[in-house]
Amino acid sequence: MTEQGDEQHEFDLGWAAEAEHKEPSARARMLAARWRENPPDPVPFRPDPGPAAPRGSSWRSAALVLGCVAAVILLLGYIQTRSPY
Fewer Cβ close by (within 10 Å): the C or N end of the chain? Predict the structure, then answer.
């Protein structure tokens, strides 16, 4: 085919967007058929949150982080003093 023929057969998105009737997707058709026979239960917009999981104390996690930082600083200082340069 010539280039002119390819341009004529190229899909035009503007033409498709302006279509009067738009067919639903396969998933939408499947869900509509399923819900006709067995409609879904109503779901609240924001369901009640479940019980909160117990959390560790924040001072323990802060102490752990600060301890790790101090250990890295001490290790780097030790390595620096041991190097001949």
Answer: C
* CA-wise closest residue to 78 among 70, 66, 67, 64: 70
CA 25 to chain centre: 23
Read off the pLDDT of residues 18-45 as tens digits, 9 standing for 90 and up: 777 778 899 999 999 999 999 988 877 8
Q: Long-range contacts for 69-78 (Cβ within 8 Å, ≥24 apart)?
A: none
**Band of residue 1 on the pLDDT scale cut at 50, 70, 90:** very low
Measured CA to CA in angstroms, residue 32 lies from 22, 24, 44, 77 at distances of 16, 10, 21, 68
Mean pLDDT of 34-59: 81
